[in-house]
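Cont'd.
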Amino acid sequence: MINSRIAGTGSYLPTKILSNKVLETMVDTTDEWIFTRTGIRQRHISSSDEMTSDLAAHAAKKAIASAGINAADIDLIIVATTTPDKVFPSVATMVQQKLGISNNCPALDMQAVCSGFVYGLSTADNFIKAGANKCVLVVGADTMSKITDYTDRGNCILWGDGAGAVILQTSQEPGVISTHLHANGNYEAMLHVPRNAEGPDTIAMEGNAVFKMAVNTLDQIVDETLAANNMQKSDIDWLVPHQANIRILKATAKKLNMAMDKVVVTVDKHGNTSAASIPLALDVAVQDGRIKRGDVILMEAFGGGFTWGSALVKY
Ligand code: UT7
């Protein structure tokens, strides 16, 4: 059987930082409230001429270097994003152009909001396992600040911009062990960006209700993933979760009987970067040497739709 493995990782954050202290001057909030309720201290914000495809291309270049491949080796590009530069064409085709890939490989965007990277990784894994592709670039990239209403203290304190990428390649040994994807469109209105006559509006979220749904749903996906692989909680070396709120991360860690030092936490520095948060966190922990080859990683995410999913990966 053909397997897929993560051959390299990369990430990119815009240089401008928006701290809680500065947010205090923009809306009726405090650093203390934000940190206590979310675990966030700061987030990175793209400049007005810095688009999702720019962030994605930067992260992709680092993943390509880390995997030791040439951009021309890539035979499929998947970009998970909810903040494309344009209505069309896809961010993926813009990344293809920015990387100078001229081999006519397919390129597509995946829209599953905060679960987008897990959806993209699962799709890439299945394409490789089906024999259709050998070397896939999977990017999670979002510029959430561009769809954030900075007068709405209920959610503007959460969002950040960034990108993370992996190169997924064929391998003899299992890398991506299993992926699990779900959606329930009945919850559309609890977390969405409506479109009006002028174009897309800004994020509207019933924060507390989404929080409770996220905790319960992630609880279930942990059980589903372990049961599907006949594995125990103790078999997981690292939790690399979507970074929405430190309290959600702690709830999932508790479910796994996992100490917080086995959870990769970036929400304090990055905020919620939507589809970018998991590959960003993965790259941070690979770069600083915490995650090593052979480690078993559980990735999980929950987002608008609702969508949710997990990926169990041997790095
Ligand atoms: O990534 C995709 C999925 N998204 C998520 O998972 C996000 C999930 N939701 C959350 O992370 C949290 O619900 C929030 C951080 C958005 C809000 O935290 P919360 O603990 O659920 O607060 P709340 O909405 O229940 O509000 C509690 C109080 C309210 O005041 P009263 O009614 O108790 O007087 C709010 O008006 O906190 C107030 N509040 C704030 N106060 C200071 C809400 N936002 C703020 C703020 N600063 N920024």
